Amino acid sequence: METARYKEIYWLLKTTASGLKKELRKKLEDHGITWQQFHALYHIPREGIPSNVLAGELQCNASNMTGLIDRMIENGWVYREHSAEDRRVWFVKLTPAGEKKKATIFPQHHENIRKRMEVLGEEELLFLEELLKKLKQGKIEVEKTHEGN
Fold first, then answer.
1. How many Å apart are CA 73 and CA 95, to the nearest integer?
2. pLDDT over 90 at 138, yes or no
3. Which of 73, 83, 106, 138 has the fewest Cβ atoms surrounding its Cβ within 10 A?
4. CATH code assigned at 13
């Protein structure tokens, strides 16, 4: 296959994924929640999570985490609580409003994904899944090959 074809397919894959993500972000923002806040809610369990662990899950630094949590506190979705074992550690916990937001926004997000993907039939979805797994596995195989050098 020509190099131009690989580049074209890569570009199509990249722009499709980017476009889907942009659409999903917009739908979340229409419901008053940012992409970062959505992911934070995803990672906050009922018992709470240390803020440094949440920062690691979200792959952001402490100052960004502070701002994100501050905005979520302003929205009434979370609160901070000192750890009983180590006063230096802050837990981020969901408020009842945060639990409600999480319970409503995640099913809506999954429905938005389903609606967007329903342009493909069942066989097409299965085939796409196979192709993407193969492409991902190829990345792993290439990394293994390079590690051996």
1. 9
2. no
3. 138
4. 1.10.10.10
